[in-house]
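Look over this one:
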Amino acid sequence: MNAEYPNDANAVAHHSPQGMDGILTYMLSSVAKKLDNDMPALLEGSPLNATAYRILACLDYQGDLSISDLGRVMNIDRAQISRAAAALQDDGFVAFQPHQTNRRKKMVTLTASGASALETASPRIIDRRRRLESALGPVRVQALLESLHILSAELDS
């Protein structure tokens, strides 16, 4: 380990018996990439891509959201969410409704067709989540979720 820069990634990677696997940010990025890379196979036979699936799942869980709120919840650029939501509207999976109090905002609503597409696409994704949760066990899952919330808040500050 480099005494002058004890948290330097290069120093840790070269001197840690774990190599890069001992660096938190590397492992978080690596796991996130693996999860993303699995999505096309998990969604095979579905009309949805990963972003579309995540938007529909978010709406199913959260209820109607504005484009801005959807982008914030999903941590995706507002322009990208707008394009993806427009494509989902074209496919009949979401509808846009006026906001009750703000005429400039539009709310994104999950349609019956969107709920059906989500239901069709979900089983393999749910199975993967259950497999990962089973590998960790409930105590580690809870600790991991708590840790990820702490890291997310730290990155937001």
Q: What stands out?
A: The first strand starts at residue 65 and ends at 66. Helices lie at 9-15, 24-42, 50-62, 67-74, 78-90, 112-136, 138-156.
